[in-house]
Design goal:
Number of domains: 2
Radius of gyration: 22 Å
Order of helices and strands: EHHHEHEHEEHEHHEHEEHEHEHEEHEHEH
Helix content: 25-40%
Bound molecules: adenosine-5'-triphosphate
Oligomer: single chain
Distance between the termini: 16 Å
Number of strands: 15
C-alpha cells in the first residue's frame, strides 16, 4: 500500500488526512468505559448493572501494577469483593493464593455467585480477552465436583488442543491443594486410546470427547456441568457446532450449561440461548470489548510484495519478549526467512501432528521460541503472558471475504493479558485490506485510536513502539511520533 493511503480516514474512500494518531487519546485520557455492559440475571428476575528476538536492543520488561487497575471501577479487572467472600472452599483459596490471584476480576466477581448458586443455573457469560474467564468456570467446577468419586463430573469443550491443554493446566494449578483431584485432557493422543477416563474434570476438543463417550472410554452418566469455552466459535462453526450439540446429547439432561467467550455476535446468541436455556447472562456491547492495554497499529506496507521484507525489517528494529504472527495460510517461507535472520521462530498450524503441536506450543510458552507463526487455530484463548506483540500479517477475513471482527479481537487479545500492555499491528497493503481493517476498528469503536506506522520511516516506527512498550502507562503514539 502506498504511503498516501488514507491513513486517518475512517473509510477506504476518504482522502488522506492526518493519521488517526493525531486525535488519539493517551492512556491518561478517557479510559474504556465499563458502564456500557449489560447484565441480565434471569435467576434474579431483574436486570442488574454490571458494573524476535531482535538483534539490536535489550528486551523490554513491561510491568503493571494490578492493584491500581483493580481499583478502577471502569476496568474489567475491578472488583469490590475478595475470593473469600465468594464462598470458595479454603483449599481452593489456597490454590488461588499460590497463583498470586489476590482479588477476583469483574467477570469472576459477577459470574461466580451465579455459577455456584444452588440449584445450579445455566450461564452465558462474556468479558474482554484476558480478564480471567477461565478461572471463573474452573472455580465453579472445583467447587462442585466430589473428589472422592473417580468419575467424570465436569466437562469442558474447547476449540483447540492447545487451549484444552492450557485449561487442564489451570485446573491443576488452582486445584493443587484439592485432595483427590484428577483432571484429564481429551485431545487426540495415541497413548490414551483404550484408557478409561477416571478424572473428575475432563477438558477436550468436541470430536475426541464424543469418540471417548461413544467408545465407552468415558462414562458420562455422572457429568453435572458442561462448559463450552469460546462458545460463539464452538456453536457457530458448522462442524464444531454440530459436534457440541452431539456431545451435549450424550450427557444427562439435567446439567449446568456454561458458555463463555469474549465475543457473542448476534447470530450466535439465539443459538447459544437454545443450547443453554434460561441462562443468567453477563453481556457486553461490541463497542466495549477492546482492552485498553492493547495498543492498535497498522503497518502501511507498499503492496503485497513488500510484506515479507517489511516484516523482517520490522523484527530487526527491536527485541520483543514474545510475539505471535497470525497468517491466513500455513506457508512456511516466513519462518524460514526469519530463522535465517537469526530469530528463534516456531510454527504451528492445524496440519501438524498433535505431538508436534504440543512441542511447538511448549517451546513458545517456555520462551525458547520467541516468535510464533500461526493461523487462526491459536487465535482464541491462548494465554502466554510474555506476549507483548501480535502481528496480523493478513487482516482477518471470513470465508466470503468479509472482515472477521471476532477473529481480529481474539487474535489481538493474545497480548495485553490481565492488565498488561501489548501492541497489535495489522499489515495493510492495499485499499481492500485497509477498508476491512477500518470496518473492524469502527465496529469495536477504536478506529480513532488506530495508529499508522509508515514503512518509509523505520526510525519513527521504532520510536512509536518503544514508547508504548517501555512505559506500561504510555498512551498510543501521537502525531508527533507517527506522521
Ligand atoms: N483474579 C486474578 N488475579 C490475577 N491474575 C488473574 C486473575 N484471574 C485471571 N488471572 C490471569 O489472567 C490471565 C488471563 O486469564 P484467562 O486466560 O482466563 O483470560 P480469558 O478471559 O479467558 O481470556 P480469553 O478471552 O483470551 O480466553 C491468566 O494468565 C490468568 O492467570
Amino acid at each position: 500500500m502506498s504511503t498516501d493511503t488514507p491513513a486517518a480516514a475512517p473509510t477506504a474512500d476518504a482522502p488522506p488526512a492526518d493519521t488517526p494518531a493525531a486525535d488519539a487519546p493517551t492512556a491518561d485520557g478517557p479510559a474504556a468505559e465499563g458502564g456500557g455492559s449489560v447484565e441480565k440475571s434471569q435467576a434474579d428476575g431483574a436486570p442488574e448493572a454490571m458494573g524476535g528476538s531482535g538483534l539490536r536492543e535489550p528486551e523490554y520488561d513491561v510491568e503493571v501494577t494490578l492493584s491500581d487497575l483493580q481499583a478502577d471501577p471502569n476496568n474489567p479487572l475491578y472488583s469490590v469483593k475478595s475470593f473469600e467472600e465468594l464462598n470458595l472452599r479454603p483449599e481452593i483459596i489456597k490454590g488461588l493464593h499460590a497463583l498470586n490471584f489476590r482479588r477476583p476480576s469483574k467477570i469472576q466477581e459477577r459470574a461466580l455467585p451465579l455459577l455456584m448458586r444452588d440449584p445450579p443455573t445455566n450461564m452465558i457469560a462474556q468479558s474482554q480477552s484476558g480478564t480471567g474467564k477461565t478461572a471463573a468456570f474452573v472455580l465453579n467446577m472445583l467447587s462442585r465436583c466430589d473428589m472422592t468419586m473417580p468419575v467424570p463430573q465436569a466437562l469442558v469443550l474447547a476449540p483447540s488442543r492447545e487451549l484444552a491443554r492450557q485449561i487442564v493446566g489451570v485446573v491443576q494449578q488452582m486445584g493443587q491443594f484439592v485432595q483427590g483431584l484428577n483432571v484429564v485432557a481429551a485431545v487426540p493422543d495415541p497413548r490414551q486410546r483404550n484408557q478409561q477416563i477416571t478424572g473428575q474434570i475432563v477438558v477436550g476438543t468436541p470430536g475426541t470427547v464424543m469418540d471417548m463417550i461413544r467408545r465407552r472410554q468415558m462414562n458420562a452418566r455422572s457429568i453435572k456441568i458442561l462448559v463450552v469455552d469460546e462458545a460463539d466459535n464452538m456453536l457457530d462453526q458448522q462442524g464444531l457446532g454440530d459436534q457440541c450439540k452431539r456431545v451435549k446429547a450424550l450427557l444427562p439432561s439435567q446439567i449446568q450449561l456454561v458458555l463463555f467467550s469474549a465475543t457473542f455476535p448476534e447470530n450466535v446468541t439465539t443459538y447459544a440461548r437454545q443450547f443453554a436455556p434460561r441462562a443468567n447472562e453477563l453481556r457486553l456491547k461490541h463497542e466495549d470489548l477492546t482492552v485498553e492495554g492493547i495498543h492498535q497499529f497498522y503497518l502501511d506496507v507498499n503492496g503485497e510484495d513488500h510484506k515479507y521484507d517489511d516484516l523482517v525489517k520490522f523484527y530487526g528494529l527491536m527485541t520483543i519478549s514474545s510475539s505471535i504472527i497470525f497468517r491466513r495460510d500455513t506457508a512456511r517461507e516466513i519462518e524460514e526467512r526469519m530463522t535465517a535472520e537469526g530469530h528463534q521462530v516456531a510454527h504451528l498450524s492445524g496440519g501438524l501432528e498433535g505431538s508436534d503441536r504440543d512441542r511447538v506450543i511448549d517451546r513458545f510458552r517456555s520462551g525458547e521460541a520467541k516468535v510464533l507463526i500461526t493461523t487462526n487455530v491459536l487465535a482464541r484463548g491462548i494465554d502466554v503472558q510474555s506476549v507483548t506483540m501480535v502481528i496480523n500479517y493478513d487482516v482477518p477475513e471470513k470465508l466470503n471475504g468479509d472482515p472477521d471482527y471476532e477473529t481480529y479481537l481474539h487474535r489481538i487479545g493474545r497480548t495485553g493479558r490481565f492488565g498488561r500492555v501489548g501492541v497489535a499491528i495489522t499489515f495493510v497493503h492495499d485499499k481492500s485490506s485497509w477498508s476491512k481493517l477500518m470496518d473492524i476498528t469502527k465496529y469495536f469503536n477504536v478506529a480513532e485510536q488506530l495508529v499508522r506506522l509508515d514503512t518509509n520511516d523505520w526510525d519513527m516506527v521504532e520510536n512509536a513502539l518503544k514508547l508504548v512498550l517501555k512505559n506500561p502507562r504510555a498512551g498510543v503514539a501521537t502525531d508527533k511520533m507517527v506522521s
